[in-house]
Specification:
This protein has about 120 residues and is an alpha/beta fold. It is about 45% helix and about 20% strand.
Length: about 120
């Protein structure tokens, strides 16, 4: 299984990558939504996107909308992993097609639970 972690925070990318790697995932990283779209349009195949909301250039919500609008990418499960904790933001992301929502800070157990909910 391959995951793409999209976050402008190096620390967040490292934390997610470490947990996913321990679980047997292959992980690549992108620093913002534009970087992620470049990888996906460039042919990188992933089974899961873990996306921060607040990033420069293209934020996570914009990335989510772009992925869902693309027929070739639209079925990739997307988990928002963000500090955005308001119910409005969560509803907005889920309404736009996010499959799960994990709030920072999180524990390894929280991430594992969310992955289990996704069935991955």
């Amino acid at each position: 299984m391959r995951a793409l972690v999209v976050d402008d925070s190096r620390i967040s990318r490292l934390m997610l990558t470490r947990v996913l790697t321990e679980m047997g995932w292959e992980v690549s990283e992108a620093v913002d939504g534009q970087d992620a779209m470049g990888r996906l349009y460039g042919g990188e195949v992933v089974d899961l996107l873990l996306v921060d909301w607040n990033m420069p250039v293209m934020n996570g919500y914009e990335l989510l909308c772009a992925v869902r609008a693309n027929a070739l990418l639209g079925d990739i499960p997307v988990m928002m992993v963000t500090t955005e904790s308001s119910m409005d933001q969560m509803v907005k992301a889920l309404g736009a097609g996010a499959n799960e929502y994990l709030m920072k800070p999180f524990t390894k157990e929280h991430l594992v639970d969310k992955l289990a909910i996704l069935g991955v």
